[in-house]
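Protocol step 4 of 5: obtain the predicted structure for the target chain.
Materials: sequence only (see below). No template structures provided, no constraints applied. The aim of this step is simply to have a reference model before the mutagenesis design in step 5. Sequence pasted as it appears in the construct record:
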Amino acid sequence: MPELPEVETVRRGLLPAMESHVIARADVNRPDLRWPFPDRMAERLTGQRVERLRRRSKYILADLSGGETLLMHLGMSGRILISGDPLGQFVRDHPAPEKHDHVVFHMKNGARIIFNDPRRFGAMDLFETATAEAHPLLSAIGPEPLGNAFHEDHLIAALRGRMTPIKSALLDQKIVAGLGNIYVCEALFRAGIHPVRKAGKIGRTRVASLVPVIRATLEDAIAAGGSSLRDYRRADGELGYFQHSFDVYGREGAPCRRDGCNGKVRRIVQAGRSSFYCTACQR
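Step 4 output (structure tokens):
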């Protein structure tokens, strides 16, 4: 499932074609994805200007001129693709419709934005912008890791007394928003922390060091366009490239990339997910 860098990369790709532009027509080609679409979604979207395109955790939020917000979640195989942008940002002609093009936005500026999702684990919702923070999918989410609310004092307090593994704690969306399996593995490697360490047993200094490390890991991934594993693509249809820079994720048995370390990358399973770490330099 796409993590924060992939979703942020898609949001940034959508900005020139969608933000400040009008949805001339919306085609909703089925009644649902993971959940049913909201009532009269196509009608409610048609003619609306996208005033702001933002991200909260792994959700893309489009604030509309009529006072509603469109929530989009890519799920496991969802892709948002852009074609026909008259500003020259995208060179793709409008493609022929495909079987899994479930929602299509025809923008007044000539762009076409397609939500394609073969497995239909993605989701969309439409609700009043003023109530967005109370939405069931958003209300319990913690601070954004790239925002000012995610700081050393917050993380130290959030982990205090927790006997869950540090990896599980960082995957808890109530503690920090948007982190997933890949980037938690990578951040823990950079910080030199073993993924099974009890979160509440890690010293304050080491916990504090995680904050800049998490930010740097995410920023590096965003700069590389995210990681293309299986289904993920950027909004322009191209691949993300951060997977070529993974230090531990997916590198089971490979030598550690840290200078002077003779360890090897090991894979274990935690809560049904693969964790990758260096046997020597993560403690």
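Step 4 remarks: The mean pLDDT is 90. Residues 83 and 96 are 11 Å apart (CA to CA).
Proceed to step 5.
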